[in-house]
Design goal:
Blueprint (H helix, E strand, L loop, with lengths): L2 H10 L4 E7 L5 H14 L3 E5 L10 H12 L4 H12 L5 E4 L2 H7 L1 H10 L4 E3 L9 H10 L2 E3 L1 E3 L4 H10 L4 E4 L15 H15 L5 E4 L5 H8 L4 E4 L1 H9 L3 H21 L2
Parallel strand pairs: 1-2, 1-9, 2-3, 3-4, 4-5, 6-7, 7-8, 8-9
Length: 270
């Protein structure tokens, strides 16, 4: 199922979609699966499963800590596919967010094949440009997968047009010029970025949704972003609940409470 299905369903309900991110293998393989399922039960419409990578250049310290724990725990690409399969079984579109090198090393078509076999919806590729993505464009077409590229505050209209022209599922608008992590306020340039991106999408006629991520950490921020974006993407705030908890049960309770708060926020923003 394409992620756009979940965005369209949320739109029909008069709200933004809530997208939650969690690395595979954090805090453990089973713990990640249980956490992602909790996020779905409490209100997430789409789940992003992070593929742990040793050089996470876009990730802030919170996600880096989680990814490090997953790598030390021995998580492998096969475990990522198993995680996707377990989470996708909930019926919620489940994408993998990954840097490009692990996909290239695995084999682009083989990765797409195995992701599709696991029930995955597609890939979010923060460091892949359309110009370098020929193999992925072909593989995603062959296996019916979403391909989510990122637009940024620094993107020109010409660049946004190129990125949205090859994206499928949704477009990821990165609201910060920096690494990931929850902030005390949403960047003031975020509404304008979404507005520019949506205008270009509307001109092309694809109807692609725009999700905004990087920095959202509470219900009030979720409501703010839901006022102008089609989706609210949250990652570090979920991970922080797990990192700060004395045990998994406490962490799951914290994740559930945060998800419910964010789910209420995406409804209040419209």
């Amino acid at each position: 199922m394409s992620a756009q299905t979940a965005f369209d369903k949320a739109k029909a309900e008069g709200r933004a979609a809530l997208v939650g991110y969690l690395p595979a293998g954090f805090p453990t393989y089973d713990g990640a699966v249980e956490t992602a399922r909790t996020m779905v039960e409490a209100g997430c419409d789409v789940i992003e499963i992070g593929l742990p990578y040793s050089d996470p250049m876009m990730d802030g310290p919170t996600i880096q800590d989680a990814v490090h724990q997953a790598l030390v725990g021995g998580i492998r690409v096969a475990d990522v596919f198993r995680t996707v399969e377990a989470v996708a079984a909930t019926g919620v579109p489940t994408l993998v967010m990954t840097y490009w090198n692990p996909v290239d090393h695995y084999g682009v078509d083989a990765f797409a094949r195995d992701l599709a076999s696991a029930g995955g919806a597609g890939l979010i590729t923060p460091d892949l440009t359309p110009e370098e993505g020929g193999a992925w464009l072909e593989a995603s077409d062959a296996h019916g997968l979403d391909r989510v590229f990122l637009v940024a505050l620094s993107s020109t209209d010409e660049r946004i047009e190129k990125i949205t022209g090859v994206s499928r599922g949704f477009v990821y608008a990165a609201s910060l010029m920096g690494v990931t992590g929850a902030r005390s306020a949403v960047d003031t340039g975020a509404p304008r970025l979404v507005e520019r991106t949506r205008a270009i999408i509307d001109k092309g006629g694809s109807g692609l949704p725009v999700g905004l991520g990087l920095g959202v950490g509470n219900g009030a921020q979720a409501a703010e972003v839901a006022g102008f974006a089609d989706g609210v993407i949250v990652g570090s705030a979920f991970i922080r609940r797990l990192l700060d908890a004395p045990d998994l049960a406490s962490g799951l309770a914290g994740v559930r409470a945060l998800t419910e708060e964010l789910a209420e926020g995406v409804r209040a923003g419209r």
